[in-house]
Description:
CATH topology: Porin
Order of helices and strands: HEEEEEEEEEE
Organism: Georhizobium profundi
Distance between the termini: 88 Å
Strand order of the largest sheet: 1-2-3-5-6-8-9-10
Oligomer: single chain
Number of strands: 10
Signal peptide: 1-20
Largest sheet: 8 strands, antiparallel, barrel
Keywords: Cell outer membrane, Membrane, Signal
Domain Outer membrane protein beta-barrel: 32-233
Protein name: Porin family protein
Structural class: mainly beta
CATH architecture: Beta Barrel
Number of domains: 1
Amino acid sequence: xxxxxxxxxxxxxxxxxxxxxxxxxxxxxxxxxxxxxxxxxxxxxxxxxxxxxxxxxxxxxxxxxxxxxxxxxxxxxxxxxxxxxxxxxxxxxxxxxxxxxxxxxxxxxxxxxxxxxxxxxxxxxxxxxxxxxxxxxxxxxxxxxxxxxxxxxxxxxxxxxxxxxxxxxxxxxxxxxxxxxxxxxxxxxxxxxxxxxxxxxxxxxxxxxxxxxxxxxxxxxxxxxxxxxxxxx
Length: 233
């Protein structure tokens, strides 16, 4: 009888151990961690194309020695061009430079009566616009928010006529000034990004006519909003 009880106890212990081992073996293992995608890096060169709209003022001032001319003319138009740039990323900070050139038809026309000058008709058109700017931004993976600023230049063509001084057609006038603003850029792939940018451009005040005791100066400043695509490499 003792032998039977001992054998039963041995079989029971063996069965319990076997069940525990099976239970341990049947516990599912933890799933492998999914690979983490590397953050987008904005470092490198890029080239791109853009288009946009402009709005702003042409200010004409002048004198004939006695009377003064003071006209502010609202202008608007479109622009489109190409750009090339380079960015370098440090952590989440991005610094870069960009140069662009654009054709534009930003223009204004006005007819007004000015004491001493009579009926005045003025027209001015910005033929092209170029900039060389620095930019600094904050990257959130494939999204970049940035500010920009730097040198701007452009060429205007003016026609001015007044009953007091006759018709004045000036030569094309190259202006120099600055551009500042901000933008957002989003990378849709490793090599393609889309961009939306705002700029305020001031091309300064310079003399466009001086003859017969009459001098006239033009001051051009305007806002621009543009969208573009960049190809990065």
